[in-house]
Amino acid sequence: HLSVRLATVGKYVKPNSRLADIGSDHAYLPINLALNGIIKYGVVGEVREGPLDNAKHEIAKAGLNEMLQPRLADGLAAIEPGDNVDHITIAGMGGALITHILESDKERLTGEETLILQPNVGEENVRRWLMDNGYTITAEDILEEDGHIYEIIVGQQIGQVPQYAAEDLFFGPKLRIEQNQTFIKKWQRELTQKQGILDNIVQSHHADQTKVSQFTNEIEMIKEILNSES
Ligand code: SAM
């Protein structure tokens, strides 16, 4: 019973791989991938006892004690060199927390791992971190479930220095070219929301000019992409 969101994250994990799922909560994603024969080994990282207990319970129930290792750890500290993980998933948190988790322990990354990241908000942060750390965005996805729109960003170090324009970081280098229905819906929503926020800022007595120009720029970018022919 995997959500469409987690199933889509799982699509980017290659068969026969070794996964670390950081912030796993119930470990639904690694359990599903193990049962489907996609991963042969998985580290299940959790920073909190309660969710880790959930994970342990679900792993035992699925009979996967041999294949999945639940570990109480902050972020990438869950990963040990002997794990030889080749995929890392971090899903269902804000982009700022995801980049914090990556940044604060990045010496643990070998550069060989495929990073599959699903920020609930703050996608731009995540893309900027990937670019700044030499990761090319090799795939992106966008989906709607229960009224929420989610993005998935896949980063890999593939031996070239990625250069992304402001629009790439904001909309996603692949999503903005593809412009599917869900993408259009997301940015129509964002446009309405940002226009509302800007109106409120402008009407307040001491309008913060930095915010005014930030929102004005973003609104212009969104209008441009929604009006462009794809
Ligand atoms: N990844 C699952 C998903 O996408 O459905 C669970 C998402 S849940 C909303 C976020 C989980 O991340 C929580 O269980 C929380 O305890 C965990 N978490 C937050 N910060 C973390 C960190 N620094 N290291 C490991 N886990 C963390």
Automatic annotation (TrEMBL):
Superkingdom, taxonomy of origin: Bacteria
The protein's name in its UniProt record: tRNA (Adenine(22)-N(1))-methyltransferase TrmK
Native organism: Lentilactobacillus terminaliae
Lineage, broadest ranks: Bacteria, Bacillati, Bacillota, Bacilli, Lactobacillales
